[in-house]
Amino acid sequence: MIELQQLTKRYGDKLAVDAISATIRPGVVTGFLGPNGAGKSTTMRMIIGLDRLTSGAALVNGRPYVEAPVPLAEIGALLDAKAVDGGRSARNHLLALGATVGIGPRRVDEVLASVGLTEVAHKSAGSFSLGMGQRLGIAAALLADPAVLILDEPVNGLDLDGIQWIRALLTELAQQGRTVLLSSHLMSEMQLVADHLLIIGQGRILADISMDDFIEHSTSGGVVVASPDAGALAPLLAADGVTLTSRQAGRFEVRGLTADTIGDIAAGHGLRLHELAPVAASLESAYLELTRDSVEYAAA
Ligand SMILES: Nc1ncnc2c1ncn2[C@@H]1O[C@H](COP(=O)(O)OP(=O)(O)OP(=O)(O)O)[C@@H](O)[C@H]1O
């Protein structure tokens, strides 16, 4: 379990993380989302003691990570996959890491196999592709069998096979009762793997909610309407809080009204409907709706 208590980080004038409090629970995958510069990496770095916190606390299994007797066994972290000594082979990199906590070749080879790097175990890590580097970073995170995993953009650079592999791995790690905190900007991927969401914007928590509740309560889903009488129907639907968008003549998407209401209005005026289809909200649409006002860096 990870507990953030009024966790704060200031860089000069910039309040990067602004008194965040949250509990990241075991047994589920928690997705950590937020626009660029929201403070995700800074929060993760503070949890694992790479950044000094300005105030508040970040507790891992009840105490600050830096006080853990065997840090590697407390949290497995993948923050920057390039942070390996490129001159060493993948196996030697893991052996050196394991040696600090009494882990030997057997466990190293086991972990190399589990991430699919056995065949290249003796190649220098510096020659690895982005995806292979990610796999090695994940191997390092898993090495000491930690109960807490923190992974910053773990699918970065992975091919489809790698993405599917990591999806299954994260689900399995959570099912084993571990705490899994995962950041990614890939919403479709996050929707498939995360059970819970912690969303931040400009250093503050915007939502701490289960994936199902977040999508279910989002009003970002719409209703697609196709009608030969669209010109007459559209003005009848106009009201406060209702938006209509149309990219094609005779077809538009309505937000803010249910399909039932639209159908009733059309029927009440004798207008024909050729299609009336609710479109479920996705994590992407719900997320965009929530973070619209807290995007710091937006293209003009
Ligand atoms: N070492 C630093 N010195 C000064 N400012 C920093 C430093 N590291 C981060 N920041 C600032 O703190 C804020 C939060 O940055 P952070 O990298 O944590 O965001 P993020 O949510 O991880 O973003 P991204 O999705 O782009 O990786 C940003 O405004 C960033 O510019």
TrEMBL record:
Molecular-function annotations in GO: ATP binding; ATP hydrolysis activity
Coiled coil: none
Keyword Nuclease: no
Keywords: ATP-binding, Nucleotide-binding, Transport
Domain (ABC transporter) ranges: 2-227
Keyword Lipoprotein: no
Pfam families, sorted: ABC_tran
SMART domains cross-referenced by the UniProt entry: AAA (SM00382)
Protein family per UniProt: Belongs to the ABC transporter superfamily.
Protein name (Swiss-Prot/TrEMBL): ABC-2 type transport system ATP-binding protein
